[in-house]
């Protein structure tokens, strides 16, 4: 009787369900093998991510925070749905790892609030209202826009990044911060070998073509007079975007290296990451990124050396400068050629584009010409075009103002100013690691704004992901420091 019971139990419904699921999964794997390698790799990555999420189900919030930060170098790698062949940041609706993580994140959060009832509904703060104002400005800007579909895609693009911010801001905790800093620096370690490989081999365009080596744009770059024609792009759209990537991430190892409470072995590791990243920054040949990082680093150095009274940081900075000079002695020749000998016509063309953008804004002052419709405005007979008529204006303020008007400017830069103000408040916190991370984010935001004076790629996938992750981290720091009104939360200092 016992053997018969065992045989009968083997035909239980749950086993049939498992067998059916395995069969379906095998069919999916079989179909996966027929895709191009890059698509097969992407799908495999998604399956691995889901599997890891299930393994980390008891610490799912932590896993999702780390995964969103880990995805920074790969933020451009996604499949566009409803793709448009236009020069815009959102050529459609992206479907990639970030979107998968957001579905998981908000699905879990929904269950925690409404099913398990372990968490309350999140409350909105001042920054959240500025984000809603930004989305409203974009929506209202589309009333008279000629290409409303481009604007809708841009709104979805902003919603995605706002959701990244909102989840991180409400879920991040103090124990997460060292790992968050490590993952931010890991992004530099991942990107720099790719950048140096491109510089040495000339195989540029890995990010621009999404690793499609057969694409017509692979190994191709726009030629600029007086500029190096092999400029690293990494996994970003172009060399300027990669420059923003570095100027936003390098402050993390730079600031932590200057702080005195770490052991020599840790400082040596931080110095190695910083030098590796500086090498990648150099081979982008982006003047805006060079100068922005230099100025923001001087600000960080001044705070550490004089406000925090850690004068040894000056000697460490000098040693890093000497090390970079020895490792890459051509950097000074590149800097002289790029800054002093660069053709004047390049800057004149950018200056003329500013007048074009200002004219568009003047004619559509409150809500702009339309989100993601800047190039469409250049074809409008009522717009007086000065300079190139196929490029967006190389100025973040005028770019936003011309597309979504004064309301959009107030909303977008209001978000940045609130984040900067929160970083300033955190600089006086008793936790040295929190203080250092806040200073690094503050320097990254300064660099981002400075670069935006002459660069139109400030909203491209990779730097924009970094920006909103930083806004989320800062929102989390603000919440942790002031959990109840103005009562500070106590922290344990990180181990040296």
Account of the protein in words:
There is one protein chain. This protein has 496 residues and is an all-alpha fold. Helix content is 65%, strand content 2%. The chain contains 19 helices and two strands. It has helices spanning 2-10, 13-32, 37-55, 60-70, 97-115, 126-141, 148-171, 177-201, 239-249, 251-258, 264-282, 287-307, 312-327, 331-339, 344-363, 374-377, 396-426, 432-451, 461-481; strands spanning 78-81, 93-96. It has a two-stranded antiparallel ribbon with strand order 1-2. α12 runs antiparallel to α18. The longest helix has 31 residues, at 396-426. The radius of gyration is 24 Å and the shape is globular. The termini are far apart. The model is unreliable at 485-496 (pLDDT under 50).
Can you give the helix content as a percent range?
Answer: 55-70%
The gyration radius over C-alpha positions equals 24 Å
Task: Describe the global form.
Answer: globular
Largest sheet: 2 strands, antiparallel
Number of helices: 19
Structural class: mainly alpha
In the predicted model, the low-confidence regions spanning at least 5 consecutive residues are 485-496
Number of strands: 2
- Give the strand line-up of the largest sheet: 1-2
Mean pLDDT: 86
End-to-end span in angstroms? 66 Å
- How much strand? under 5%
- Reading the helices and strands in chain order gives HHHHEEHHHHHHHHHHHHHHH
């Amino acid at each position: 009787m016992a053997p018969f019971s065992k045989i009968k139990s083997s035909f239980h419904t749950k086993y049939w369900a498992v067998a059916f699921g395995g069969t379906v999964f095998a069919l999916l794997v079989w179909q996966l093998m027929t895709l191009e390698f890059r698509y097969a790799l992407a799908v495999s990555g998604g399956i691995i991510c889901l599997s890891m999420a299930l393994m980390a189900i008891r610490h799912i919030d932590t896993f999702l925070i780390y995964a969103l930060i880990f995805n920074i170098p790969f933020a451009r790698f996604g499949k566009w749905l409803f793709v448009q062949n236009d020069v815009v940041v959102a050529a459609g609706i992206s479907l990639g790892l970030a979107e998968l993580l957001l579905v998981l994140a908000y699905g879990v959060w929904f269950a925690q609030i409404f099913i398990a009832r372990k968490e309350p509904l999140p409350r909105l703060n001042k920054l959240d209202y500025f984000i809603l104002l930004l989305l409203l400005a974009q929506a209202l800007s589309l009333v008279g826009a000629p290409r409303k579909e481009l604007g809708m895609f841009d709104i979805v693009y902003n919603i995605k990044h706002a959701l990244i911010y909102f989840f991180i801001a409400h879920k991040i905790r103090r124990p997460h911060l060292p790992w968050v800093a490590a993952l931010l620096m890991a992004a530099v370690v991942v990107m720099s070998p790719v950048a140096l490989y491109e510089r040495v081999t000339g195989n540029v365009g890995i990010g621009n073509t999404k690793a499609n080596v057969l694409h017509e744009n692979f190994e191709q770059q726009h030629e600029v007079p007086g500029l190096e024609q092999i400029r690293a792009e990494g996994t970003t759209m172009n060399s300027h975007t990669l420059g923003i990537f570095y100027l936003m991430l390098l402050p993390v190892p730079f600031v932590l290296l200057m702080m005195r409470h770490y052991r020599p072995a840790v400082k040596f590791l931080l110095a190695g990451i910083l030098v590796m990243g500086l090498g990648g920054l150099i081979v982008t040949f982006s003047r805006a990124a060079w100068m922005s990082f230099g100025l923001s680093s001087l600000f960080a150095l001044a705070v550490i050396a004089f406000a925090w009274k850690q004068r040894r940081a000056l000697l460490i900075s000098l040693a890093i400068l000497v090390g970079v000079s020895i490792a890459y002695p051509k950097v000074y020749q590149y800097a002289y050629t790029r800054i002093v000998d660069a053709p004047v016509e390049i800057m004149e063309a950018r200056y003329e584009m500013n007048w074009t953008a200002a004219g568009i804004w003047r004619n559509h002052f409150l809500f702009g010409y339309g989100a993601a419709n800047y190039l469409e405005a250049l074809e409008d007979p009522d717009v007086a075009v000065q300079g190139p008529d196929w490029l967006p204006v190389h100025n973040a303020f005028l770019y936003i103002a011309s597309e979504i008007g004064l309301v959009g400017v107030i909303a977008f830069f209001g978000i940045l100013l609130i984040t900067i103000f929160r970083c300033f408040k955190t600089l006086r916190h008793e936790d040295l690691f929190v203080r250092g991370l806040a200073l690094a984010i503050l320097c990254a935001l300064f660099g981002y704004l400075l670069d935006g004076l002459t660069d139109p790629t400030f909203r491209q996938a990779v730097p924009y992901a970094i920006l909103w992750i930083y806004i989320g981290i800062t929102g989390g720091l603000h919440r942790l420091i002031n959990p109840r009104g103005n009562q500070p939360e106590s922290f344990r200092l990180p181990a040296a």
